[in-house]
UniProtKB/TrEMBL annotation:
Molecular function in Gene Ontology: hydrolase activity
Lineage summary: Bacteria, Pseudomonadati, Pseudomonadota, Alphaproteobacteria, Rhodobacterales
InterPro entries, per database record: FAH, Fumarylacetoacetase-like_C, Fumarylacetoacetase_C_sf
Family from the record: Belongs to the FAH family.
Domain Fumarylacetoacetase-like C-terminal residues, every copy: 77-279
Protein name: Fumarylacetoacetate hydrolase family protein
Amino acid sequence: MKIASFLWKDDPWYGLVEGDSLRPVEEAFKTRFPSLRSVLAAGSVAALAEHCRNQPALGIDTVTFLPPVPDPERTTCVGINYPKRYPLDANVGRPEHIILFAKLPGTILGHGASLEIPAGEAAATFDYEGEIAVIIGRPGRHIPADRAHEHIAGYTAFNDGSVRGWQKHSVHAGKNFAGSGACGPWMVTADEIGAPEAMTVTTRLNGQIVQHAPATEMFFSITKVIAYVSHLAPIAPGDVIAMGSPEGSGGSRVPPRFLMNGDMLEIEVSGVGTLANRIGTGNAGTATDKYAYSGPSGCSF
């Protein structure tokens, strides 16, 4: 299943994606489970389809997309998880340990939203990072890596928007500008992804491929990352874990190519779809520029 969250009737809603249409969940089901996170927490994803079946179809270009889980308890990103030129002017090898950082509420927008260009000098080093992300479906703590797949609800695409100049102040500063990143366009349930290690992430900037890599290039696999995060703190349904970004982000290119007003950024994850966002000066959290999804074409440090 493809499950999206979106604004409908001026309220946050969720439902199934079917081709170029959406079927919002029945109001009674939504009253019981107000968000996709609550559906995941109740273990009711399978029931969701039944409560969408008889609903009217909405054109995919008639709604404002939200991140698949608009209200995650935690969004965790992995740093330096692919071989690459480090975007802060240094060459680094494989880290000894998994590197983690967090995203604050308000940093992540949905598919089709205009990403907010930072004000002042920060705009000069506004960067993109295309990533594969997992959405947690089952809670857990101290999860062994060989059982981690049991806790995955689904997969999505992720843009870890980064302001490189402010990363030199601190990682937290550079990674948490309002409206700088995105997630979506929806979650594809884990049962539809037969071999997660075979997934690829491809980033296109104004139609040109700037990043492309399979998950097999990750230093630390998806299951190892989930296991590691679960030893730090309990993972919860709806948590988002972004798995790092491969070579080709703007700061690691020679010469650097940072985002500019009007750029179109597309991040495709195989088996999922394409997350697309215009770069603009709209208010964070609002979709001032809708981008119609045309079907599959599909946090680094």
